[in-house]
Amino acid sequence: MGAIEIKNNIYWVGVKNPDLRIFDIVMKTENGTTYNSYLIVDEKIVLVDTVKDGYFNEFIQNIKSVIGDRNIDYVVVNHTEPDHSGSAGKLLEYYPDAVVYASRAAIMNLRNIINKDFNSVEVKENDVLKIGERTLRFISAPLLHWPDTIFTYDEKDKVIFTGDAFGCHYCGDGIFNDEAGDFSDEYKYYFNVIMGPFKKNVISAIEKIKPLGIDVICTSHGPVLRDNPRKYVDIYWDWSKDVLDIPKNNYALILYVSAYGYTREIAKAIAEGLKETGAEVDIHDIIETDMNEIITKVDKAKALIIGSPTINQDAVKPVWDVLSLVSPMMNRGKAAFAFGSYGWSGEAVQLINDRLKGLKFKTIEPGLKVQFVPTEEDIEKAKSIGKEIAALIK
Predict the structure, then answer these.
(1) For the packed helices 262-276 and 376-392, what is the interaxial angle rounded to 10 degrees?
(2) Which residues contact 312 (CB under 8 A, 6 or more apart)?
(3) Which of 55, 125, 243, 308 lies 20 to 30 angstroms, CA to CA, from 90?
(4) Are 210 and 257 in contact (CB under 8 A)?
């Protein structure tokens, strides 16, 4: 596509991948994506992020169309995920005197990505780099969505480079949001999958950039946000603000799947015990509940209680679907309990417990297994367990 000037000698020099349909194994990308990289031309020349491996020839042509035979002085690495650092090794071979500016975590990651040493400077919160008329300020933004992430702010032009934050997988004809048409669905989907597990970090980063004048947000994927960029910061805030009261004390979430109603009976008994002790309880059949609603409630809950029958020596797929979306970052240290009815083997409860421990929950062992139909004694035991959990989350 070629380089495009964004503002006052700041250029987009990225590449497009309109045909991409799956990203990072799990994300659908029906409108492709872009790998955005930016060139700042001043007394010194700065490149902000690189692009995915396989696109280097197009990438270097874009760069050279702007700077010709001049050298790149600094490479700012906001984030080292390989779709943004995959061509860094070739770039540093091309410009061997360039100095990488990045967080400590990013420098360590990059060394393990390109497997060569390079000139580098570790940046910390509010460090600055003077490049001529411009001063670049570095803002720590860890876990948006990797521990290495920083934002880079051009104080003169009020342009902020935010890595994956505020981006989306969308490849339009142009590069700017006012040229892209409606990408709101892609924007929300990207937030849910990439940034949703890190809402606390979203809030923290927004608090840091709120005082800044921002004319353009330059993201690593999707449209460059030059039209009303504050709108996108506000959207992120709205989507993340519920984390301010997470976890909610005294709130337990019960999720279950039940083949013949027996696991549901246990779920209801646990809920009754929780309520008798004053806990707030939500109880949902996973099959009948929207997955986004489930995950939002998981993040809010102080305790997760999850039940499944055992079918073919395993928990059932809807349970695994839920647990595949639960973030250990959001739920570390919360109480969790597994239960279920079984016929002839009963492995589901232990398998769920093992997964919950892997997700960093504090499991209440050994869980509750009931063979076929719960007896009155089983129901009373389930109520008692509910009371115990309620006491833990007060």
Answers:
(1) 50
(2) none
(3) 125
(4) no
- Number of Cα atoms under 13 Å in the Cβ half of residue 271: 16
Residue 328 backbone phi and psi in degrees, to 5? -65, -25
pLDDT in the model for residue 26 = 78
Token pair for residue 267?
Answer: 């779920």
Q: Domain spans of the chain?
A: 4-243, 246-392
Options 3.40.50.360, 3.40.50.1460, 3.40.50.920, 3.40.1280.10; CATH of 246-392: 3.40.50.360
Distance CA(332)–CA(338), nearest Å, equals 17
The encoded tokens of residue 205 equal 């980063």
Q: SS3 of 50, please? A: coil
Q: In Å, how far from its chain's centre is CA 162?
A: 14
For position 161, what pLDDT does the model report?
A: 99
Predicted pLDDT of residue 292: 85
Chain mean position to CA 109: 18
pLDDT per residue over 70-113, tens digit each?
999 999 999 999 999 999 999 999 999 999 999 999 999 999 99
pLDDT digits (tens, 9 = 90+) for 204-240: 999 999 999 999 999 999 999 999 999 999 999 999 9
Which of 233, 242, 246, 168 is closest to 205 using CA atoms? 233
Beta strands in 1-134 (DSSP E): 4-7, 10-12, 15-17, 22-23, 27-28, 33-35, 38-41, 45-48, 74-76, 99-102, 120-122, 128-130
Q: Please state which of the four CATH numbers 3.60.15.10, 3.30.70.100, 3.50.50.60, 2.40.160.40 is assigned to the domain occupying 4-243.
A: 3.60.15.10
Give the integer Cα–Cα distance in Å for 22 and 198. 22
How far, in Å, CA of 197 to CA of 331, rounded? 9
Q: 3-class SS at 77?
A: coil
Other C-beta atoms within 10 Å of 56: how many? 20
